[in-house]
Amino acid sequence: MIHSAIHLVLLLVFPPFMLGVINKTKAFFGGRVGPPLLQPYRDLARLMRKGLVFSTTTTWVFRAAPLVTLATVILAGLLIPLGPFSSPVRSFEGDLILFTYLFGLARFFTTAAALDTGSAFEGMGAAREVTFACLSEPALFFGFLVLIKLSGSFALATMLHGPWQAPWTTAAAPLVLVGVGFFVILLAENCRIPVDDPNTHLELTMIHEVMVLDHSGPLFGVILYAASIKLFVLGSLFLHIALPFKSCHPAVDWLVILGEMTGLAVAVGSVESVMARLQMRHVPTLLIGAVLFCAFGFFLLLR
Amino acid sequence: MTLALVLCGVVAIAVSGVPGLLMDHRGQAGQTLATLLLVLGSALGMTGALGTLVSGADVTREGPWFLPWGMNALRLDPLAAFFLVPIFLVPALGSIYGQEYWKQPEHPENGRKLRFFYGLLAASMGMVALARDGFFFLIAWEIMALSAYFLATTEDDDPAACRSGWIYLVATHLGTICLISLFTFIRRTTGSTALVPIAESQVTSGAITTIVVLTLLGFGFKAGLMPLHVWLPGAHANAPSHVSAVLSGVMLKMGIYGMVRITGLLPRLEPWHGATLLAAGTVSAVLGVALALGQSDLKRVLAYSSIENIGIIAMGLGLALLGKSLDRREWIALGLAGALLHVWNHSLFKSLLFFNAGAIIHATHTREFHRLGGLARLMPRAAALFLIGAAAICALPGLNGFVSEWLIYSGLFRTLGTPSDPLGAAWPFAALGVPALAVVGALAVACFVSVFGSIFLGAARTDSGAHAHDPGKLMQSSMLVLGLGCAAIGLVPKPVLFLLERVVSGWGAESPLRSPALGDLAPVGWISAFGAGLLALAGLLAVFYLRSRRRGPVGSSVTWDCGYARPTARMQYTPSSFTSFVSALFQWSLWPKTHRPQISGLFPKAAAFKAFQPDPLLDRGILPALSRTARLILRLRLLQQGQIQIYMLYSLAILILLFWWGRSGR
To answer: Rounded to the nearest 5°, which phi and psi values hold at B408?
Structure first.
């Protein structure tokens, strides 16, 4: 019960902090002081107080999309276990499909809202978003197949806690491959460099930022907040494979989770600092690489 | 009792179009009468079918027969009843919809013909589901196929409709040839054409393989599995929309019904039988939706997406066959339940989308949806209903498509091994269906966001939709019923699972092992919980949003255009530009045609870029091959001189040849 409460609080409160850490890391690499770590919270609070401006071409779909997106990422966050703890919603067989398709629902509404504005730029971003999803989804499911094969279960909690308990001679190679694949998916799905640059200033080259160009005020705040939760949720999925740590005391475990999440944000920030964004036409190649990594992991297990 | 109800229903439906033939071709009375008869018959039949499903009864009945082969034998079991439900639902809603969509006074030349064959099609599909004898089945099958031909060519003055009608006619009869061979073969092997379980002692494994191959080919043509799909897009696109809904939502499923029925009769199967169907289903699903992405005709998009959905159904069924051959009861239960539920689901959301397409065509007089835009303002109800259908077809949580795909996913995951059977999977390659299904899901989102967005959202691209308006009450209510069905199955799947349990446990039930309860394999209660959670959370956020909106100022402005002062609606992303990025990933298999003009010089002339997506098999393979063959055969004309003397010479020459052959043979 107490763990569920902590899970819920972390899920709702912690994610914007990760954005702060990423920005701080990037500032560090750039030799700047950078905005304070808690700046994203201030930004969100300020956006929530602002008024709204709507484009005259938009309909209710445009207004509903941010709310649906936030609802889906929160529900997905209730399904995923954090560290060695079980998730607030008891895990059931097949919940990983629900988990993935909730993101599909969010994508449906986000891209529809982008088309609702009638702007060519936003259409462009939406087209990119749905295209990259066509590659990251099979990669994700190939990774799931590896985890299921290793853990013998397709309920998220047992599936994510199980793999490293298999003999490491079997598990290590596939899990490393899946780990690499999932990190690429994490970057792509959250629109980070090298797939998308959240700080770019040219509409032509954006993906996620361009889809939400016309959103303003509280609704834009909701979008930013939902995006950070998505980073948190997919990050915890990745951490189950990359750093499956379990100590003897729950309090230590919670601290470890916080540390791992912060570390992940630093890692994402470092990738952003040392790399440039790929050319848009090369992004599919990167994502196909992720599919192949996960698929090789699966075929290694079929020997 | 249930069988009698269903039969009464079928008869009422079959004759529903007859009174209209004798009535004034400019009056509405015949159509209203037909609709009333159809709805009445469907209500009777639906009562019988649902009664059978709930009670799990299995009724057979034999009657007098007038042909040397076969017999008049009917059977109403849960499997037949399950397929009867969409047969009684969709045509009835379609006829109500047709009251406004295809009014007799507006279509005096073909309305009566349409209604005659419409009733006949619905009734013959009912008889196909009821037949317990091969020849009886074939007769019903042929009536169904022919009435579908006359419906697809309702507008027989339209050359496109006639052409696609011909292609359909050829394809369906290729399938019928396989089916005639199938039932003849069954008769030779077992001594009777009755569709009863075949005993182990009656067949060799070669005979089983023959039966399976003929079943997959014969019924695959009707279902539209790739590469047997070539007739489907044209026939569905050129029929009136409520007919398309019946063809796509119900008639394709009769192919699936045939596969389920015949494979259920066989005592055992080889693993590769199921694997073949699984592979064919996977290819159909992925390429079907990829082809849908490239279409510019709304109804062709829906038709190709039917191929995709039939592929998903075939994946589930293939998994069930694989489970039957390896004796894995969980695979059978989840695969078959997923496939059958998707049959219902597809008939709900695809009919909804076809009805909606009809409403759009009615309002804008165009099927080229890249000419539209911003219709959500003029047709708000149609937009909301289209959104439900589109989200359901993308298998998004909260609607029915998700539940069936979830069952199929769960079955496919189990091919990796279960806790009781750890890592001991006999067929791990079946699990490759999982990433394939994920691709299908993502592509479907791309496709339907593009369709929904370019029709209903943004600004109008041309003035085609300037006078658009929501469809009339009857059209709306028939769509609303389907939309509510989608939401009901998506939010509360438990009762449907109970009905599915009846069907699944009756399928190929010779095995001594009892199938595990579907409810234990598939905890659908959680789906309901999450559906409710999603609605509640979104509702809560909406309340917060509305409050915050009241607090701050709300302005309105033009869409951000990067400072360009004169944006026009034609600058919007069109569906083809939206999907070109995705389609590029599939270029290797789809071969889209593009016409790219050379632009040179400082002041280039006006030029146009064209791109369209032909069917890779029909337009690039079959039709060119056929016309080449026709040209070759044309050379034989040299022999055909038109002079009687020359023909006499041929006869003489052949006679001499025969004599010579006969002598040398001796």
So the answer is: -65, -45
Name the minimum distance, in Å, from the CA of B448 to any CA of chain A. 9
Residue B383 CB coordination number (10 Å): 22
pLDDT at B604: 85
Answer for the pair B25, B58: CB distance below 8 angstroms, yes or no: no
Whole-angstrom distance, CA of residue B524 vs CA of residue B522: 6
| Element holding B534 (H helix, E strand) | helix B524-551
Nearest CA-CA distance, residue A93 and chain B, Å: 7
pLDDT at B643: 87
Cβ <8 Å between A119 and B561: yes
**Are the Cβ atoms of B452 and A112 closer than 8 angstroms?**
yes
**Measured on CA atoms in the order A199, A110, B586, A145, is the torsion positive or negative?**
positive
Instruction: List pLDDT tens digits, range A66-118.
Output: 999 999 999 999 999 998 888 888 888 889 999 999 999 999 999 999 999 98
Cβ distance A123 to B530 less than 8 Å, yes or no, reads no
**CA–CA dist B77, B507 (Å, integer):** 10
* A148 at interface of B, judged by CB pairs closer than 8 A: yes
**Would you state the pLDDT for residue A223?**
94
- Sequence-ordered strand ranges (E) for B317-382: none
**Distance set, CA B547 to CA A58, B146, B552 (Å):** 20, 59, 9
The residues with which B557 forms a beta bridge, in sequence order, are A55
Regarding beta strands B72-76 and B593-595, do their DSSP bridges make them parallel or antiparallel, or are they unpaired?
unpaired
Give the closest residue to B219 by CA, choosing from B138, B320, B126: B138
**Residues sharing a CB contact under 8 Å with residue A153, sequence separation 6 or more, in sequence order:** A93, A159, A162, B419
Global pTM reads 0.94
SS (H, E, C) B82-124: HHHHHHHHHHHHHHHHHHHHCCHHHCCCCHHHHHHHHHHHHHH
What is each CA distance from B554 to A167, B287, B539, in whole angstroms?
60, 45, 21
Q: Tokens at residue B40, please?
A: 């009445």
- Mean pLDDT, 10 residues at a time, over chain B (666 residues)? 90 90 85 93 94 89 82 90 95 94 88 92 95 92 95 89 91 94 92 86 90 95 91 91 94 95 90 94 94 90 95 96 87 92 96 95 90 91 95 94 94 78 65 94 95 92 86 93 95 92 77 65 88 94 87 82 77 87 84 82 84 83 90 86 88 93 76
Burial of B657 (0-12, 13-18, 19+ CB in 10 A): exposed
CB B500 within 8 A of CB B515: no
What is the SS3 assignment for B368? strand
Question: Whole-angstrom Cα distance, residue B444 to residue B292?
Answer: 9
For residues A48 and A216, give the distance between their C-alpha atoms in angstroms, rounded to a whole number: 10
Select from A57, A107, A137 the Cβ nearest to the Cβ of B438.
Answer: A137
Whether B632 contacts B648, CB under 8 Å: no
Compute the count of residue pairs across chains A and B with CB atoms less than 8 Å apart: 246
Output the pLDDT for position B305. Answer: 95
- CB-based contacts of B277: which residues, under 8 Å, 6+ apart? B216, B259, B314, B317, B318, B321
The 3-state DSSP class for residue A153 equals coil
Rounded-to-integer distance, Cα A177 and Cα B113, Å: 62
Judge: B416–A105 Cβ closer than 8 Å, yes or no: no
As a whole number of angstroms, the distance between CA B388 and CA B392 comes to 6
Residue B75, beta-bridge partner list: B60
Give Cα B663 distance to the centre of its chain: 58
In chain A, residues 11-50 whose CB comes closer than 8 Å to chain B:
48-50
ipTM of the complex: 0.96
Pick from A75, A121, A213: CB nearest B533 = A75
